[in-house]
């Protein structure tokens, strides 16, 4: 099945810093989503981005489907950005979301 | 509009018991999927239902089952609970075969 790798696995930032999270996938995908898991466990959808670039406030994402990777940019990070960020891909053959192992982000004062 | 609602939020069960978890999707969403999250295995797909039919199933033993009702609400059942079933169970809905998934807050199951 498709493999999804995320890097880095852990990231510690000071408030105000910028960061880039990466997601590599091993096969063609129909859809790709970025999620933020909050401390209570809920997966919050950040972007539905099978290709191209999207922006939402301080967050933006770019997926280059032909090269099989996606990037999540966080600018001017805040403590509320802390948590685990997951990339998940959907393929027609698997007909399910396959998740990466996540990037654990900690933003300190 | 209301999001995906999962009940209960927390559950403690004893080995050998069975448990039923509930998921109400976003109004109008016909697809409901279930995922299990554990520290060791990460997020793993359990099954997906669409219009009351199971469309896809993950690699879990037969003790894990589910169903979907005509109003798109879904339940999953785990029989003969084992300690390893302790996990966060997440439900997600989407409108149809395309589009993004929206997840609920999850049910945290502890088996003692």
How would you describe what is shown here?
The complex is a heterodimer of chains A (109) and B (112). In chain A, 0% of the residues lie in helices and 60% in strands. Chain A has 109 residues and is mostly beta strands. In chain A, the strands form 2 sheets. In chain A, strands 2, 4, 5, 9, 10 and 11 form a 6-stranded mixed β-sheet that branches. In chain A, strands 1-3-8-7-6 form a 5-stranded antiparallel β-sheet, with no helix packed on it. In chain A, a hairpin with a 5-residue loop joins strand 4 (31-37) and strand 5 (43-48). The model of chain A has no long low-confidence stretch (mean pLDDT 95). Helix content of chain B is 0%, strand content 54%. The N and C termini of chain B lie far apart (37 Å). The radius of gyration of chain B is 13 Å and the shape is globular. In chain B, the strands form 2 sheets. In chain B, strands 2, 4, 5, 6, 9, 10 and 11 form a 7-stranded mixed β-sheet that branches. Chain B has a 4-stranded antiparallel β-sheet with strand order 1-3-8-7, with no helix packed on it. Chain B has strands at residues 5-7, 10-13, 19-24, 31-38, 42-50, 53-57, 64-68, 74-78, 87-94, 102-103, 107-111. Chains A and B meet through strand 4, strand 5 and strand 10 of A and strand 4, strand 5, strand 9 and strand 10 of B.
């Amino acid at each position: 099945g498709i493999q999804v790798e995320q890097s880095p696995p852990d990231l510690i930032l000071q408030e105000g810093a910028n960061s880039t999270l990466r997601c590599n996938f091993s096969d063609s995908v129909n859809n790709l989503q970025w999620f933020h898991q909050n401390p209570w466990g809920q997966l919050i959808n950040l972007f539905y981005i099978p290709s191209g670039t999207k922006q939402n406030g301080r967050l933006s994402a770019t997926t280059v489907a032909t090269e099989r990777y996606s990037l999540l940019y966080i600018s001017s990070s805040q403590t509320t950005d802390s948590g685990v960020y997951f990339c998940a891909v959907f393929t027609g053959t698997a007909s399910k979301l396959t998740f990466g192992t996540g990037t654990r982000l900690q933003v300190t004062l | 509009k209301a999001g995906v609602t999962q009940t209960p939020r927390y559950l403690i069960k004893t080995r050998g018991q069975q448990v039923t978890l509930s998921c109400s999707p976003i109004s109008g969403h016909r697809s409901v999927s279930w995922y299990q999250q554990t520290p060791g295995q990460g997020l793993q797909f359990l099954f997906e239902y669409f219009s009351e039919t199971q469309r896809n199933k993950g690699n879990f033993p037969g003790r894990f089952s589910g169903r979907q009702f005509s109003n798109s609400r879904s339940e999953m059942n785990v029989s003969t609970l084992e300690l390893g079933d302790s996990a966060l169970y997440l439900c997600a809905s989407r409108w149809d075969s395309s589009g993004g998934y929206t997840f609920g807050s999850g049910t945290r199951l502890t088996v003692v």
